[in-house]
């Protein structure tokens, strides 16, 4: 798909068609109400401020076929404009955050997934030879595996882990970092993608975790000391953290990972 040449009609903004665009600025999706960055469907009309993740830009008529996810082989997820039940009563089984807008819902088991969470890549090339795989929890098949480098715990939500087993990061913790860092600024700066100049804020607290130290600088919770092995772990954490953030935000591209990385405090 080419930016600026593809448009869709969407139930969240019936008055205008939305055009596929790409901006380096964060936005709040008007479909799922979760943060995003990079590619999005945006209303091109002046005065309109409407952005949709590509993953949320699905029609209701005809309804898309049920989504099948390998983590839930018995489930058939239907795309809905809003998850059933009272507001605040549903949560995403991938990231643990509330479901406030469009979502994938399994009527049989009651599971819900944000569209971007449902589309998370099962493998990420984080650069520097680092390969990450998505797991339904951070414990691994034998109950082991690295604890999350953000919170220091296991099993909170889906997580990305390096093949070497030295890095793990919860999808939920990525969302927490974004919420803490942006603090509603995405909502206040909607429209920045049209040239407002707003850029991705620093990810405050990215270096804080149970592994941190006040005397040693840490990056994604891995302390930097002398020694090639620990230095390599820091490099893995840096590459992996950038890749996971960009994937969770709905655009797992190397370009976006680099943009985000340039705004993480060093």
UniProtKB/TrEMBL annotation:
The keyword Repeat applies. Residues 11-57, 87-118 form the DC1 domain. It holds the Pfam family C1_2. InterPro entries: C1-like_sf (IPR046349), DC1 (IPR004146). Keywords: Repeat. The keyword tRNA-binding does not apply. This is DC1 domain-containing protein. It comes from Urochloa decumbens.
């Amino acid at each position: 798909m080419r930016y600026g040449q593809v448009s869709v009609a969407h139930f969240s903004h019936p008055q205008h068609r939305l055009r596929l665009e790409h901006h380096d600025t964060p936005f709040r999706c008007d479909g799922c109400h979760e943060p995003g960055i990079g590619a999005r469907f945006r209303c091109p009309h002046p005065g309109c401020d409407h952005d949709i993740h590509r993953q949320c830009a699905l029609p209701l008529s005809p309804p898309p076929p049920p989504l099948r996810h390998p983590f839930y082989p018995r489930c058939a997820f239907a795309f809905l404009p809003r998850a059933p039940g009272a507001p605040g009563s549903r949560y995403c089984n991938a990231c643990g955050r509330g479901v406030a807008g469009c979502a994938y819902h399994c009527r049989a088991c009651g599971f819900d997934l944000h569209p971007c969470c449902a589309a998370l890549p099962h493998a990420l090339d984080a650069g520097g030879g680092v390969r990450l795989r998505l797991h339904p929890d951070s414990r691994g098949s034998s109950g082991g595996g690295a604890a999350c480098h953000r919170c220091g715990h296991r099993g909170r939500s889906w997580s990305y882990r390096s093949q070497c087993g030295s890095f793990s990061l919860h999808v939920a913790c990525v969302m927490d970092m974004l919420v803490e860092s942006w603090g509603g600024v995405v909502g206040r700066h909607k429209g920045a993608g049209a040239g407002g100049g707003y850029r991705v804020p620093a990810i405050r607290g990215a270096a804080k975790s149970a592994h941190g130290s006040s005397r040693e600088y840490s990056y994604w919770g891995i302390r930097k000391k002398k020694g090639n092995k620990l230095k390599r772990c820091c490099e893995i954490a840096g590459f992996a953290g950038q890749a996971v953030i960009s994937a969770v935000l709905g655009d797992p591209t190397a370009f976006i990972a680099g943009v985000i990385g340039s705004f993480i405090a060093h």
